[in-house]
Amino acid sequence: MSQKVLSVSRRQVIRGLLATTAFGLTTQFGTGCTSERSTAEAGGAEGGTDEPMTIGFIYVGPKDDYGYNQAHAEGAAGMVQKFSWVKLVEEANVPETTAVAETMRNMIDIDGAKALFPTSFGYFDPHILRMAEEYPDVQFFHCGGLYVEGTHPKNVGSYFGYIDEAQYVAGIVAGMTSKTGKLGFVAAKPIPQVLRNVNSFTLGARSVKPEATTQVVFTGNWAEPIKEAEAVNSMADQGIDVVTCHVDSPKVVMETAERRGIFCTGYHANQAALAPKGYLTGAEWDWTNIYSRLAEDFRSGKTLADGGIPHLLRGGLKDGFCKVSEYGPAVSAEAKTAADAAKAGFMDGSLVIYKGGLQDNNGSVVVPAGEGFKQQDPKLETMNYLVDGVIGSVG
Fold first, then answer.
1. 379: in domain
2. Starting at the edge strand that comes first in sequence, how are the strands of the sheet with 242-246 ordered?
3. What local confidence, expressed as pLDDT, does residue 49 receive?
4. The predicted structure's pLDDT at residue 51
5. d(CA 323, CA 307)
6. Are residues 103 and 118 located together in one domain of the fold?
7. Pair (181, 303) in one structural domain
8. Domains in the chain: how many in total?
9. SS3 string of 313-345?
10. Coil, helix or strand at residue 157
11. Which segments of 83-160 does DSSP mark as H helices, in order?
12. Do 171 and 205 contact (CB within 8 A), yes or no?
């Protein structure tokens, strides 16, 4: 694969635009914030004769954060390696402000991007929605948002995976490994996607250890390394012996747990290298699979606006949206067997996480008796509660 990477300031690009009017400009630029901008052209197995299509990716943090941004960047890189006609433009460390709107505009106007993946949750409203109205011929894909038919522009799509299935499996391993029955969860914000992971992890643990509890701490933001370290240390002091998280970079959580001699399960990407003794398993994204499918749709002429690509794209373990990390050295054969059985249940559709009679941690019934919410049920995407067994509050 041939690759060209160039990082320059926005001012340099503007000077270049003023100086060049007769040929195409492929230089990349920043947004006024500390950022990384790069271009990659694929040279995959299909050959290099096709007209390239430019696809843009935007990350709220660095691409090597061992977490959310790295998972997306690895997925984009995997897509580039598969297709010779993909031209990838990326920018990292773009905040959830008007800076992301500027980055999107520049990718479209200067780089010629026809599809954009602004990956952070806070990019959606209002930034993606406004840019989608301004550029109706560009396709905008947002990770985690919930597209509303008739309200949002038709060239906007939402994609996300049922990674709580992998969290449920990790919860089984955590529950069977824990000696105290006390688990910990460091979380960024009490939004539905995060609450779903907290709850599924807890329900997985309680499926094998009914007395298990999960202490949740919300840090208030996606990247709060000091608060994350403080939360893990506090949990260890309270006798919690397995921790996990839903933050942009699990690095601090994993490394702090390892230093304190307690176990951990990962999130977003594989963090086994950060905690070689205590890493049990983890819930990982498989974005290469999903981005490659969408790239093929682009190439065949399908769009969001004409209905060729669904506005709500969802899937779980069976659909290749996510996967479970390999088991660490501390995981028992019994725990592996139980976890593998749960994975098989998700693959054949027999395992339902949110079953009838489920109560929240205030004693209210959140799933009526005789009912059950399958993963694709929209009610789960509006989750605003913590299940019985979770110690903490969403308010």
1. no
2. 322-324, 279-285, 263-268, 242-246, 182-187, 213-218, 390-391
3. 46
4. 86
5. 28
6. yes
7. no
8. 2
9. EEECCCCCCEEECCCCCCCCHHHHHHHHHHHHH
10. strand
11. 98-109, 129-134
12. yes
CATH number, domain of 311, equals 3.40.50.2300
Instruction: Say yes or no: 113 and 42 in one domain.
Output: yes
Place of tokens 């969001």: 304
pLDDT value, residue 35: 53
DSSP state of 307: T
Contacts of 109 (CB under 8 A, 6+ apart): none
Tell me whether residue 266 is in a domain.
yes
Chain position carrying tokens 């990407």: 269
The per-residue pLDDT for range 155-206, each reduced to its tens digit, is 999 999 999 999 999 999 999 999 999 999 999 999 999 999 999 999 999 9
Tell me whether residue 306 is exposed, middle or buried, using C-beta atoms within 10 angstroms of its C-beta: 0 to 12, 13 to 18, 19 or more: exposed
* Assigned domain for 336 exists: yes
Q: Which domain holds residue 278?
A: 164-283+327-348
Q: What pLDDT, on the 0 to 100 scale, is given for residue 307?
A: 95
- Cβ atoms of residues 114 and 295 within 8 Å: no
**Helical ranges in 178-328 per DSSP H:** 192-208, 225-237, 251-260, 287-299
Same-domain check for residues 185 and 71: no
| Tokens encoding 247 | 């933050």
Q: Residue 36 has what pLDDT?
A: 60
Give me the half-sphere count of Cα atoms (radius 13 Å) on the Cβ side of residue 7.
Answer: 12
Residue 98 located in a structural domain: yes
The pTM score is 0.85
**Regions of the chain with pLDDT less than 50:** 1-34, 44-49
Residue 358 token pair: 């489920």
